[in-house]
Amino acid sequence: MLERGEVANSWRTERWDSLRLLTPNWQSRLPGLRYEGPDPDGYMTVAEVTAFIERFAAVSRARVRTGTTVTSVRRTDDGYHVSTTHGELACRAVVIASGACNQPSVPALAGAVPASVEQLTPFDYRDPAKLPDGGVLVVGASATGVQLAAELQRSGRPVTLSVGEHVRLPRTYRGRDVLWWMDASGVWDQRYDEVEDLTRARRLPSPQLVGTPERTTLDLNALASIGVELTGRWAAVRDGRALFSGGLRNVFSLADLKMRRLLDTFDEWARTNGRDAEVGPPERFPPTGVPAWTRLQLDLGSGEIRAIVWATGFRPDYGWLDVPALDGKGQLRHEGGVVDSPGLYALGLPVLRRRRSTFMCGIEDDARAVIDHLARYLAVRG
What CATH number corresponds to the domain at position 154? Predict the structure, then answer.
């Protein structure tokens, strides 16, 4: 196993200080290891996640070569040749477990932002004190965007949040964590070959959730209530002005509709499986409030905005993969983790084999299926 940094490197070096897992502690489980602490319904901090992964490396006795960066993987007659900063390796098969969040995905229009405005990604951000005084524009309203917008607003900075497509969820529903419902109802276990639009499912934004001791719901209504200004998707920069799309009402309505449909699914599952008595009564939540006025442009040179945080998602880095296994958008071509190149496999990608694939509690089932295929492949090749 090759790791470019230390064990749990991304959690050590690429997370902001206040971050907690979105999943409750009882869902933190890996093969042979699960959370056994005093707060199963809490949410791990960055330091706790790092320690948990370190403990798994020790328990599993994984042979990890740390500080080893892979610079090239190329196909050979009998497998693959792997070049690293610490030498060359020959192998019959390779499992790519580097995940889908290696690099922040920043739109090209960032290049047109005036130099007077500081720009950061979630990899750069640590806490509000590291930003210049003044207004902050947070771009993106998925889990990362809403969490950073709330933290920055509470620090005393005026925050504008640019909102595009998003997934709205309550933190708790009928007295249980919403991810308990995803787990218990089987929604998370839907297989990749059962999903109607797999490409869209794999690009779905992360839900608007935050892990706090209070089990707080952090949706756009909550942000508006503390003073965050909501505006539309950032569409262009013209003459030093950020131009935002209109149509927030439609964006909000679509997110609200999808949430209601999911809650209906939970309710139906509880009824048909005799679980209504052990949870609270069905709930419905107020629709996302549409501001009376939203700005359509913002002068980036006026000094009103001193910093921009690009919470616009992440993308994988396959610059080292010298194998023709990527599609036109730079994504691995694979079927349930079996990559379109014999002996090449992947783990940790969105909806790899199930909807839970990118969560810690989803990796074990995926890994068993992928490794089973790998073992059969090696057995056939002798």
Answer: 3.50.50.60
